[in-house]
Give the backbone structure.
Amino acid sequence: MTRNGGQLLVACLKALGAKTAYGVPGESYLAVLDALHDTKGALDFVLCRNEGGAGFMAAAHGKLTGEPGICMVTRGPGATNASIGVHTARQDSSPMILFVGQVGTDQRDREAFQEINYRQFHGSVAKWAVEIDQVERIPELVSRAWATALSGRPGPVVVALPEDMLTSLTDVAPCAPVLIPEAAPAPEAITALEHELSNAKKPLIIAGGSGWSDDGARALQSFAEASDIPVLVTFRSQDLIDNLSDVYAGDAGVGMFPQTRQLIVEADLIIAVNIRFGEMVADAWSLLDVPNPAKRIVHAHASDAEIGKIYAAHVPVHSGPNQFSRAVEKLSVNGDWAGWREEARAGYLAYVDAPAQPGSVDMVAVMAHLREVLPDDVIITNGAGNFATWPGRFLRYGPKQRLVAPQSGSMGYGVPAAIAAKVNHRDRLVVCFAGDGDFQMNCQELGSARQANAQPVILIVNNGTYGTIRMHQEKTYPERVSGTEIENPDFAMLARAYGFHGERVETTADFAAAFERACASETGAVLDLNVSAESLSPRQTLSQMRAAGIKVRDGK
């Protein structure tokens, strides 16, 4: 069968198992768009309003499904806009492939219209960046891109597609499906882990990363429960372990609880499962000496490049998370540390609630209501900002619930992520938490949601300020507000313009009924919550932050 490069690319994606692509059209890859005309229902194209939103959707797709999220954009501005999704996928360790239309091969290196060298531009962020110059190599290089995105530590791949290559004809067959084996732990590594546990007094499991199966996560939890070992999860991985389990001790993320920090400090053995020892979990690498921690470290990771990258483990284990968890689930461990685990659990439970918040809408009360009414398979998304503490710390994630949030701390992620979640799970409730500044980074994607019939429920925590920066501003430069106050539009009216149900929630008492109406809406919903800037943080008001900053500034 003779076909052009665009048709062959789409055939390869279908063969590999792709069912959805997110993107913004461009003349540089018209042949691909034409081929997608014939794949509706098998490989659908979700039309986005901005390439940044498309990149976020693809990154979230990879995080949620474990399969590469596919993003398609045009050259130059399209590729640079989408790069925010590439960076997010990298820090989330989420599989993603960004396909970029490129100038023709006969125009390269002349600074042609919208020309960019994609290897140079994305090379430090993507796992691999490649340009396909010959149409016959599409199956080979697309297959490799898929495998690269999924293997080891999953992540993003960038594939440039010259326009003339896409219109060239070939009779080469599409690639076949790709199978990615997961590394398993060597028997001697498990024996060494047993030895470490036999000498431990305060063992601690810290788990995170991507590539987890439901069975793998269950096996790790089973091991922790049978061994009575407390478990922390990494930043924005709260859905990895059932939060109702007595071994769950919280997350080691931004704004780490004092109890959480103390757990890491006091532990004499850390079993690090699939984590990359990033800045958050190690509190800017201050909790453990680099490169040789005083405490014992067992570090299991799917990528050998992550083992020893920052900390030299006493027991390095080259293994994927599921194979490692299945192996340790078989161990019989009896340690005298029940009190240690109970203390860890109590510390977590003490921080699940907070004092009533100042202002018209009290987010503590809102979260208490949501814990009661959210279904056991809800998908939660959020972007970045102080508001993210509410879904991150004040919901308790059960085994079927999911949190899809950016470890890169990227504003604007929540709305596109919620749309991607709804595209993949149309029968599940998807709730997005967004700040007023965060929401306006990608609020235009409400149009994408409407067109794709994938409309989530969005809660805007509207305090009229860039909360995270305002918090640091008041602590460092009190009483000198600069560049952080926001004048907002009528969000409810904006939502209705996009065909969503839209409401302004003025008081705490109004929330329950408004949320019920939002969930009942067949066209999705946006609830604009009237939250005070005073409640920038659950346990410290803006005025208290400012007062503390004034004392430091004035030396009092």
Notes: DSSP finds 21 helices and 20 strands in the chain. The first strand starts at residue 3 and ends at 4.
